[in-house]
Amino acid sequence: MEKEEAKNTADNNSSTNQETPKVEVLIVRHKQLFETLKNPRMMWRVLISLFFIIVVLFAGLVFVVLSIKSFYPYNAIQTNLYGATIMKTEDKEVIYWLFNTAELWANSGIEVHENDELTIRASGASFTAIHHLVDHAERNSLPSDKWVDTDGQNKTEHRDVLRAKYRINNRCEEGKLLMQIVPPENQKNSTEWSKNNISLFDNKQNIEVIGKGREKLKIKHDGILHFAVNDIVLTDSTIKEMYEENLDSIIEVSSQHTDSIKEKIMKLVRNIPSDTTHLDLASLKKLNNDYFATKSIDYSQIGLRLGKYPGEENGYPLVNELIYYKKETYYDAWFMDNVGSFLIVIERKK
To answer: pTM of the entire structure?
Structure first.
């Protein structure tokens, strides 16, 4: 009986094992992907395609960025104390500054350093003798002098040729744009500046001629950029030199001078003291009226052709504008005489 039951149990187990179903998992959704992964050749094709897609996208992004930067190229924009607008990139600066030509050695506040490379462009107009404009306006006539650009003008009149050597730079045109790099400790500012400081800017070797522009100008030392137009700076020494030369030319041309008159003139002139309050203006006027007013020579056509002393109708040649400047310590003639403005654009490579 027991054998029979055991046999029946074994038969039942065997029947159960034969009827258990098998489970097979089929990936249908990503079947192609898995087939590709199984194929090395197909896999390399996919990777190469992805690489080219990434390269193209990156190149497109770079192009967009560079295009935007071409319209908005500067990372930072600043304005310094003197009104210069400075636009900076990683490796250079572009600076815009409006220069008032009435100012002598105007401080731009633009700092430069040794081995910097500058490219400078300038445009605008100036006039170096505004009183001539006033005179011609009163007479309702056209002025002989003209407004000039940053290259100035080459005057060929006898008076201008004689005066040329007294300009800041006697080798280039009147009114031409000049630049000087001044050490920070000597820079011109609104709080401390007088005629005594002019000597700080009198280093001819340090003056750069700019005109309409200069390219690849190499900076030799650290400093601040200062600008001026090429004209005559009326210092004590310049006034004295011009006055003496004017008298020398008159004496040389006029054969009517006697030695005694010449001696009186030169004694007065060459002994004008530094203290201008002691200038013997009365003696000059008397000598002028007693002698020169009686002569037929047109002294205004001789020498530097200086202007008249204010209020003196017959002031020429002894009592003229230089005597007035000397007596009145009038050093604002530059500011009163010059008018105009230049737009200066500077590209500085660090």
So the answer is: 0.71
